[in-house]
Amino acid sequence: MSRLPMLPRDQLGELEPLFARVEQQGGTVPNAWRMMAHVPDILRAFTDLAYVTLRVERQVPPVLKWLVAHVASRAAGCNYCMLHAVANADGLPQAAGEREKIDAVWEFETSPLFTEAERTALRVALGAALVPNAVTDADFEALKAHYTTEQIVEIVAVIALFGFLNRWNDTLQSELEEKPLAYAASHDLDKRGWSLGAHGKSEPA
């Protein structure tokens, strides 16, 4: 269960435009935000950064950005962020022809569904999320061989954003919402290394 109270949405009228923007894009308003909303300025600043990092379409494909987030979160051990990232990838309009790839993300090193450029980005995501950072010079040179400087900034920004989220959600044990949990159940994620961990609802007294 969450370690801080989650503010009811009906008490957060000034933040409703933020929530509506997420839902219009097919996402779920995270319970993590309802804890962050105790200090609205932090939530606004965070959601602005998250929006421009993840939702503004630039040169890096949107599905790949969410898979980078998923791989980084799994490497960091954050089950909350792992599930949100893969469910968001699957929910994108661009995911229509990519669902087999999304399901195979943890075979990215060997699966023929992934290009070498995608493997390189996911390899960096994996290494960057470890402590200490495990990205090697060779990993980064490979990244530069496939991506422009601007694209590398996009990729590393996603990894860094989820570094914040991984620590936020695991420290506060953010409670997972029904929509991503339904995704986990329908895709048998428990058979592929995902578990609810500390992110379930509190048991009734």
From TrEMBL:
Keywords: Oxidoreductase, Peroxidase. Gene3D superfamilies: AhpD-like. Pfam families: CMD (PF02627). One of its GO terms (molecular function) is peroxiredoxin activity. Coiled coil: none annotated. SUPFAM superfamilies: AhpD-like (SSF69118). Residues 40-125 form the Carboxymuconolactone decarboxylase-like domain. PANTHER family: CARBOXYMUCONOLACTONE DECARBOXYLASE-LIKE DOMAIN-CONTAINING PROTEIN, SI:CH211-175M2.5. This is Putative peroxidase-related enzyme. It comes from Aquabacter spiritensis.
